[in-house]
Design goal:
Elements lengths: L2 E5 L5 E5 L4 H11 L6 E4 L5 H12 L3 E6 L2 E5 L7 E2 L12 H10 L1 E5 L12 H9 L3 E5 L2 E5 L7 E3 L5 H12 L4 E5 L5 H12 L3 E3 L5 E5 L7 E4 L4 H13 L3 E5 L7 H9 L3 E4 L3 E5 L8 E3 L11 H8 L5 E5 L10 H5 L4 E5 L2 E5 L8 E3 L3 H13 L3 E5 L2 H4 L5 H7 L3 E5 L2 H11 L1
Parallel strand pairs: 2-15, 3-14, 6-7, 10-11, 18-19, 22-23
Antiparallel strand pairs: 1-23, 1-24, 3-5, 4-5, 7-9, 8-9, 11-13, 12-13, 15-17, 16-17, 19-21, 20-21
This protein binds uridine-diphosphate-N-acetylglucosamine (UD1).
Length: 430
């Protein structure tokens, strides 16, 4: 089992290059199978979730050529099956995008029920409601979602909750439906816009992505494209909070600063300095981090995927902070781990009441999910002494070369598999 070992206490200093957005890329890979022509996807993050999805589409016959670590060419003219029961696919949440993509293209899809991070019950009723509104039958049998339609007809769909996944999934299927679809109460996240742009570059007719009403005029077929995925807002935010928590000075490069506004606003509130450039943001930490209040909300609010990272930082900021999680109900599982490092956090329902402590102390901890895992790495970087983190497989789902990027900023962090390697690391960093 791989672990991270960290010796904390070094401020992160230097530049870091952000990879493509995992959550946009997952939907974009799914969208690529909706044409028989070749699709080239660039700035694709080389992370486990993406690689599992690529293997899954190869499993149903697509031809995937890796042109480089971050660029693939996908030829889907050879797809011979609409059944995706590849054993790993259920481990990634976004396996559900294959439903929308296959339903749109072949009017039929059978995909294993999605898994992903265990951060609360994650229903897919809005996805199903959307597919049904387009005229599809949807059944769940033996852990598979089966959907089919004689024809897909555009429809007017009101989403009962703001859902990134349901918005994108319905957009995928509706791109190839007959007639017009209107999605109301749509999610406005940057990756919804990125997927719409990608589909439009394939000949789709989607307007309004980024607002809460998306209008889609179905087309009969999609064509080839070359598309570059937007930068990962959450990876960028993770490095920004890592800079703050270690009182460092980091230039976070290859980002769209507008997508980071909710994150930069909170960093300013807690006392950091921010310098914004066209495609980069510098975060300069301070010895006097201050408490604040934050509530997670759909975009443009503060992202739930950044909740653990800000909480870890607030737990070493002066005063009492309140963090309210309004998207997923089970997203404070890292709190027990953090308590072992000295944090003082009380969770009541969907609220964490955080009393700042002066410092963390290194401990042996486990990553409970992807973003909480990254947040615990931040805690380890800020802590006195050594921290080892188990279950880093979660972190590898979504962060490309995480330990390499952190090491380049001066962090003492290594991926290890044996006690011997741990001892070597301890001797090396002293
Ligand atoms: C996506 C992201 C995830 C992020 C989340 C919210 C991917 C692969 N994952 O997840 O990292 O944390 O957006 O920004 O892009 N809901 C329903 N019914 C549905 C769908 C969702 O009730 O059919 C609820 C969920 O339980 C949750 C809320 O809606 O409370 C938002 O979920 P959603 O935006 O769909 O999250 P995901 O797309 O799963």
């Amino acid at each position: 089992m791989e672990q991270y070992i960290i010796k904390g206490g070094e401020p992160l200093i230097g530049d870091v290059e952000i990879s493509g957005a995992k959550n946009a890329a997952l939907a974009i890979v799914a969208a690529a199978i909706m044409t028989d022509e070749k699709v080239v996807i660039d700035n694709l993050p080389d992370v486990r979730d993406i690689n599992v999805l690529l293997q899954a589409i190869e499993g149903i016959g697509a031809n995937v050529v890796r042109k480089s670590a971050n660029c693939v060419e996908i030829d889907s003219s050879t797809i011979h099956s609409v059944r995706v029961d590849y054993e790993y696919i259920k481990k990634i949440r976004a396996s559900y995008y294959l439903l929308g993509a296959l339903l749109g293209k072949f009017h039929r899809a059978e995909v294993a029920l999605p898994g992903g991070c265990n951060i609360g019950s994650r229903p897919i009723d809005q996805h199903i409601k959307g597919f049904k509104a387009l005229g599809a039958d949807v059944d769940i049998e033996y852990g598979m979602i089966m959907t089919s339609a004689d024809e897909l007809i555009g429809s007017h769909i009101y989403m009962d909750v703001v859902s990134v996944g349901a918005t994108i999934n319905v957009m995928l299927a509706a791109a190839l439906a007959d007639g017009r679809t209107i999605i109301e109460n749509a999610a406005k996240e940057p990756h919804v816009v990125d997927v719409a742009n990608m589909l439009n570059s394939m000949g789709a007719n989607i307007k309004g992505a980024g607002t809460d009403v998306i209008r889609i005029k179905g087309v009969s077929k999609l064509h080839s494209t070359e598309y570059s995925v937007i930068p990962d807002q959450i990876e960028a935010g993770t490095f920004m909070f890592a800079a703050a928590a270690t009182k460092g000075n980091v230039l976070v490069k290859n980002v769209i600063p507008k997508h980071l506004e909710a994150i930069t606003a909170k960093l300013l509130e807690i006392g950091c300095c921010i310098e914004e450039y066209d495609d980069a943001v510098r975060v300069i930490g301070t010895d006097n981090l201050k408490a604040t209040q934050v509530k997670t909300l759909p975009y443009p609010g503060f992202p739930t995927d950044m909740q653990p990272q800000i909480a870890v930082t607030l737990a070493m900021s002066k005063g009492t902070s309140i963090v309210t999680e309004s998207i997923f109900e089970n997203r404070f599982k890292y709190v027990d781990e953090l308590a072992r490092m000295g944090a003082d956090i009380k969770v009541e329902g969907n609220t964490a009441i955080i009393t700042g402590v002066d410092r963390y102390m290194g401990a042996q901890i486990s990553a409970p999910d992807l973003r909480a895992g990254a947040a615990l790495v931040i805690a380890g970087l800020a802590a006195e002494g050594f921290t080892t983190i188990d279950d880093i497989v979660y972190i590898q789902r979504g962060y490309e070369k995480f330990e390499e990027k952190l090491s380049a900023l001066g962090a003492h962090i290594e991926k290890i598999s044996t006690e011997h390697e741990a001892q070597k690391f301890r001797l090396k960093v002293g």
